[in-house]
Peptidase A1 domain-containing protein (Rhizoctonia solani), 559 residues
Amino acid sequence: MKSTLLSLTLGLAGLSNAIHLPVQRVRPRSTGSTLMSKPKGEAGLGDTDNIMYTAEVKVGGTSYTLQLDTGSSDLWFAPVQNYNKTFASAKKYENLQVNLTYGTGWAAGAVAQMDVQFAGFSITNQSFLYIEELSQWDIDFEQQYPLYQGIAGLSFDTLSQINKVVLNNSRETWGRSLMSNIFLTDPSTPNHIAFFLDRTGDLNNTDTGYFDIGTYAPGYERVANQPKFDVFTGFESEDLQWNVLVHGISINDKKQILKTTVVADKDVGLTNVPPKGTISALMDTGTSAAEIPEQAFHELYKAMGGVLVKGASVYVVPCLAQANVEFTIGNVTVSVHPLDLTDVQVDDFGTGQNLTFCTSVYGPASYEGADNDIILGDAFLRNVYAVYNYGDFVKTESGLNTSSPFIQVLPLTNFTAASEEFKVARAKALAGLPPQLDVKTVNDPTPKPVKSTGSKNGTSGTNSSTALSAMALGNGWFNTSESDSLKTLASLAPVALGLLGASVGLLVILIAVVGYGLLQLRKQGSTRTAAYVSVPLRGEQHVEYKDGGATRYDTPFRG
């Protein structure tokens, strides 16, 4: 959950209209687009990467690298060195205490206000959470990765705990989220954000992408002509998340039966459930993987020859196995790149001899009272250019819209081409790794390699059952299981985005990425020069960050 501080000059005073910020994912917008990056382990033996897309936010003369999270709405900065000095001029409201609970970790403190700059926008008196307490998970993560520096929630004000506390105590609207204030401050800015999360290769250190505010990444402007999918909410109070209705999931051309798990509960105001034959999906950049219906999860990885690890909802899969997975939203079908279905791992299983194996990236969804059935995180979002449109804001009532918000997706993955890319990238990655595990033996006391793999042997590792259990727990997948092209582009904002990888306790994961080379987007992407910044990792982290599918982001940590 940490990211590296990326030096960057905003230099965009008086910016209006839209901004486009190039993104980079290293070994992983205002009106505009942001540079994103994702770091991974330094050597061939690295860590299981939890992808985290981040951007620079400046406050009190200091730049913080914050995770961009469409699954939550609140803004907070981690209490790093000189925290009190940086926020000395902040106006704190000690009577307005807030507790933010996430799928992993929590943060607590007082509502505060201070001027901030993000992607070229200057926001006066932006509300945020002044951290007074932080979960041990976050503290440990910060020690591992000192430059993880907080979260910028990009969901709706109705999901914001800060906004609710302010409204409930004062009936005023100054608790608005960062994005609300950006759009309200500059009415000329179209009220949308967009993400392009790219991949390169299994062995490459950098992926590229874009985060846009009020505009579209060059080459992807045709997304404006895509169908507009209304945001789905089950709550009569119009509490909104970035949910859309999924009309179909197919695995190797076999259609899955979709049945919602959302249950109406008038006591909590949940009165609307997805129509028959559909399920609700949260489009969440704050979740590195994805969660799908449990039956589809098992069918997917069994079809790939996978073996379920005892005591965990994780499959070990032959590393060269692939599947054709498609999601249908409305009348738009999105294919998933095979590289997004499995992760490469290395472990010695307690024997002193390293083995290479691959694990499931998609996990089984579990319903615990929210209005979404599944989560489509980064493992899905890398296959689309996604636009999140907030609708038209009403200044007098924070977070409410006069017209419905919607999402648009432009599919980017051609399965036939992706299948060939996968074969090349995965084979290249495996060529330099230890022998492959015979997946049929993963639950044996001493797992064995596939015979005659011809790969080189490693030397050290950790106990496999412990590592696999840690990974499953970190994903929340243990069996006990928790948001027309613009013709004028005012300016290019060089806001750096870091895509951070977090360790899950196994020695290696190569987020397999193919073909387009370092610092290069897909063919449809921009050809402009951008300053990409590497985000190195240090050490290991034994818990993966994710937004929990059923976790309400307005749930207090303490009573």
